[in-house]
Each structure stands twice: as C-alpha cells, then as structure tokens.
Fold PurM-like N-terminal domain-containing protein.
Amino acid sequence: MKIQKIRDLTLIDLGQEKTVVVACDSCGGIGLKEHDVLKVSPFITGKYTARVAIFEIICSGAEVVCLANTICNEMEVTGKKIIAGIEEELEEAGIGKIVLTGSTEENFATFATGFGVTAVGIVENKNLKVNNVKTEALLISIGQPKVGEEVITSVKGDIASYDVLKGLLCYDKVYELVPVGSKGILYEAQQLALNNNMQLILNHNAQIDIQKSAGPSTVVIAAIEECFFQHINIPGNVEVLGRLKVK
C-alpha cells in the first residue's frame, strides 16, 4: 500500500484507481472556559475548526465520507455545542449525511477549550487535484486572510466559500486548490510551487497581505490556466498572486 504525506494531507492509494485522503486540524484556547484566550461560543470553535479539515479534503478533489472529533472537554455543555457547530458546517458544505464520530473528556475537569478534528475522503485518481500542476499557471487567491474575531465579523464574500470551491473543481483548467491557514498565503504558494517542481513568480502589485494568517482557511489559492481565468467570473475577493513557471 502506497502512503504519501503532501502538505497537510495524507494520501493512501487503495488501488483500483482510488485514493483515501486524510486531513486534520486542532484548536485550543477558543471558547467560554476560564482560561480561554478568545471568548466565543464553543459552537464557533467546532464550526470553524471543522471547516479547515473539510476544506482540505474538498480542495483535493475528494468527497468527505467521515469526520471524527476529539473534544478535550466534557460533553455537557461544551461538547454538545462544539458538535452542533460541526454539524452546521457539514450542512453548509452539503455533506450533512456523512458519518460523524468522536470522543469527549469525562474523567477530569478542564479549564480551557480544546478540540481536534480529522476528516477522511475518497477520490478517483483521475479527479485528484494534488501535485497536479503540469504546465505554467496563473496563481490566484480567493478570499481575505482573517483570524480570530475577524472571522466572526466577516461578511459574505470576505472568505472562501464551498460554492466557489465546488464550482472551480468542475474545470480541468483549474489545476490545484490549496487552503491557506495560519502560515499565510506566501508559505502555501511556495509549498505549492515546490511540490509541483515549479518556479513561483510573485505579483508584487497584489493588494493582499501574503504574510498574514488566514485562520480557518479563509483563503484558498488556485493554480489555473491564465486564458481560462480571463473568461470565468469567480465571486468574492480574488487577487492575482503571480505565476508558476516551469523550471
């Protein structure tokens, strides 16, 4: 069995032209407990932490089939609120009927909110959009980098959406999609170029902070055919970051 680690993804080749894709994320100190740094409902914690793992799977071209939550707090009431947030995010992603499983901490009292999530997807190899840039491409960003309270107060169009991602995945001329998290746009763009053995040429006139954290994947970068980009309307905040050139 062939297993690869690429970016934040684990790829398991099942044979028969299918691959399992695994992604995870974690969150600590965000909730309503005594020692939480950012005071928000655990519902928000669950919702946006789940978003990160779901985005990773969807951007790879895979279909999410299972999501596991590991909650480092009691079920009553923190755990239930986190799970409710996860369930709302699954509904927004259009995958509310998948298997949702997990665990909580019932043996010891906790004084800060902690939560991890693992998403599992399956994809036919012909649809896998990982290390899929075979020719020169335009590199764009969708959404704005936001973190913490900025995420909570964002409005529609500020951050990358499931509808936009799923629309882009339908096109062969969209070669690869990569969610951006805490390491920022520049880091993910550099990793995308490195993994595809391409050279990154930045657009220094881009009006977006490529160093800032994008929190729970509020930005997605896309490698796309330049001519195709000129003829497609992508909703939301879109910025040309530069190009990927063959070395």
Observations:
- Helices lie at 42-59, 75-92, 149-152, 162-169, 184-195, 226-229.
- The two ends are 31 Å apart (CA to CA).
- The first strand starts at residue 3 and ends at 6.
- The chain has two domains: 3-127, 137-246.
